[in-house]
Amino acid sequence: MSTKSYTIRTAGQANIPVLGLGTWQSTGNDCVEVVSKALQMGYEHIDTAQAYGNEKQVGEGIKQSGVARDKFFLTTKIFPDDMKFEPEKLKAAAEQSLKDLDTDYVDLLLLHWPDDRVPLSETIPALCELQKQGLTRHIGVSNFNIANIVEAKKHADVPIVVNQVEFHPFIKQDSLQTFLNNHHILLEAYSPLARGDVFDNEVIQKIADNHNATPAQVSLAWILSDKDRVAIPKTSNPEHLQGNLDATKIELSADELEQIGKLARSDGRKIEHPDYSPQWDD
To answer: Comparing C-alpha atoms, which of 85, 165, 158 is closest to residue 118?
Structure first.
């Protein structure tokens, strides 16, 4: 079955499907199966990373799906271990990802975290060069704060199209969101279901009941109500794929959006961030 309920977000000439499949903690045959089924169902956006240790499985899932490479948007991320953000190592890392994914290019290549050991004045031009060489169609960053992005933009001669960060109803990202909007960079939400906490929230559950939907779908619909956001919910359960995709059809009222927006708090992060995390803006 193919479901085409997508809309597209556009930034810096990148057309990014609004909802993708996240693959963090998806491993082995489960990863292969969920990627393959997602693409067959009509998903047009797959997100992985070197640090997930599953690029080979994602590549196998793509192969088993039978879906042509030009029919979906593929993202991977380079993790800054072993000084991989040095220009020559960055290229080698990108080439390894392409080999593991069994593809000639990715649509979006992200720096997974800031790395103070290698200046962005060196890393960003090298990342831009990978786009010019055709290894990736677009570039972006992940887990960058405003100061990181300001610095990155100084050294970029192609658009930075995405900042992928933790985002869900319980987290404050107002300052970052405003900055990204002003600079035509999309906020791409990982952990959009707050690691399952959305299921236990009474406000979200009540709104879900009003729409004959699940709390997961309401959380995703709330994120996607802003036209400058993309969401990449992770699931290893193929049965959840359709539910997440159907969230793109839910329209929340202004009052419902406001109710959910009030759930954010300063300590709302659900992901245990590493010691090298930047100072968050909210």
So the answer is: 85
